[in-house]
Write a structure and sequence with these properties.
The chain is α/β, with parallel strands linked by helices. Helix content is about 40%, strand content about 15%. It has a seven-stranded mixed sheet, with helices on both faces. A four-stranded antiparallel sheet has the order 11-12-15-14, with helices on one face. A two-stranded antiparallel sheet has the order 1-3. The radius of gyration is 22 Å and the shape is globular. The mean pLDDT is about 100. It binds pyridoxal-5'-phosphate.
Length: about 400
């Protein structure tokens, strides 16, 4: 059994704050402070450029990729770190369409994160030749998978509502139709059990600053199924994905397996923080995380519905059909969220009207759930959210 009191003690959370936004940016793992400091002073400071070899920096994208692989049902050697998630989406989808050269359609849904859709739009514009992005409603994805589809590009957990796609069923359907399945695990990795190998997914990508607590702008990951890693062609053909980067050949030759999905120089200080953040995952069972997350989300929903009648549930009620977040709609959701944040309950807002709350059992328990609902109820009953300064939109919502 996972000891959640022990995991909670490994995070730096300010007094007086109930942090329900780990689905967007995880809090600071205490271990990351020392690891980043050591990387800066001992490795960068003393080793200078030798650190690439002496501290092993050059292989961190692979070794840290292996640590993430364990959390998403992927074998060692199938995941590599680097770049941002948007770039990794582009890279995965670009490689996927090349595996189905006779087809022209990338299928996605309107619940996908806009950056994924934007990257696919950019890709089809660059490819020309009749490529197009087809976007359907999330519920219509299964029926839209047919022999015209080259690639399905789906995000397992809807960023706004937490609605969960059935990865195994949709991947099987894609394969039946001869399509390649690309999955975005931004809101899945560290939130719920993922079984990439079991689902036979072709490509997967995800970020590490949410449930994996790697810090703001922490690097993304990409998974390529081992059966494809040696044949997938990297469109972003950077030197560190080359077969022999330090041969400095004038022509690109893709590196072995997942190495070819590397692009350029890895962000070592950010990787140091992420590496330390992953320590906590050595102490937890994903099944315990899932059980506890569903229980916290269910409790939150029941309490809010009983005590805050002006809010409407936007997330699936069935915990098995939801990620690790809960959203409620309110016509003035933005202002309500700012009032909550002002009182130490930190969630976020997603347009047009969603108050979004993430539940991460590593450091959130029942006391935090009840504490957050008490503040929410008070704000709504008093109407104290209804002030001009709470309506003033910040750059990041
Ligand atoms: C599902 C999903 N895909 C892509 C992105 C974009 O990630 P990045 O800003 O790291 O490129 C996000 C960001 O939150 C996301 O939630």
């Amino acid at each position: 059994m996972t000891d959640f009191a022990k995991t909670h003690a490994q995070f730096r959370l300010p007094d007086g704050v109930i942090y329900l936004d780990g689905n967007s940016l995880g809090p600071l793992p205490i271990a990351a402070e020392a690891k980043v400091a050591r990387t800066i002073t001992e490795e960068w400071g003393k080793e200078l450029i030798r650190g690439w070899n002496t501290a092993g920096w050059i292989s961190w994208p692979r070794s840290i990729g292996d640590r993430i692989a364990r959390l998403i049902g992927a074998p060692a050697g199938s995941v590599v770190m680097g770049d941002t998630l948007s770039i990794k989406v582009f890279q995965a989808v670009a490689a996927a369409v090349k595996l189905r050269p006779e087809r022209r359609v990338i299928l996605s849904d309107s619940g996908n994160f806009p950056s994924d859709l934007y990257m696919a739009e950019g890709l089809v514009a660059a490819l020309g030749q009749g490529y197009r992005l087809k976007v359907v409603e999330p519920e219509a994805v299964e029926d839209a998978i047919d022999e015209t589809i080259a690639v399905t590009m789906l995000t397992e957990v809807d960023y706004r509502t937490g609605r969960l796609h059935d990865m195994a069923a949709l991947t099987a359907k894609a394969h039946e139709a001869g399509a390649i399945a690309v999955w975005d695990l931004a809101h899945s990795a560290g939130a719920l059990p993922v079984d990439l190998l079991g689902c036979d997914a072709d490509f997967a990508v995800g970020c590490t600053y949410k449930y994996l607590n790697g810090g703001p702008g922490a690097p993304a990951f990409i998974y390529v199924a081992p059966r494809l890693a040696g044949i997938a062609q990297p469109i972003l053909s950077g030197w560190l994905g080359h077969e022999a980067p330090f041969a400095f050949d004038l022509n690109y030759r893709a590196g072995p397996g997942i190495e070819r999905m590397r692009v350029g120089t890895p962000p070592i200080i950010a990787l140091a923080a992420l590496d330390a953040a992953l320590d906590v995952w050595d102490q937890v069972q994903m099944a315990d995380i899932r059980r506890q997350s569903i229980s916290l989300c269910d409790r939150f929903i029941a309490q809010v519905e009983a005590r805050c009648p002006s809010l409407t549930l936007a997330s699936p009620r069935d915990g098995t059909k939801r990620g690790s977040q809960v959203s409620f709609r309110h016509p003035e959701g933005y202002a309500v969220m700012q009032a909550l944040i002002d009182r130490g309950v930190i969630g976020d807002f997603r347009a047009p009207d969603c108050l979004r709350f993430g539940f991460t059992p590593l450091y959130i328990g029942e006391a935090e759930v009840l504490g957050a609902v008490a503040v929410l109820e008070r704000i709504l009953n008093e109407g104290s959210w209804d002030q001009p300064h709470y309506r003033k939109k910040a750059a990041v919502t």
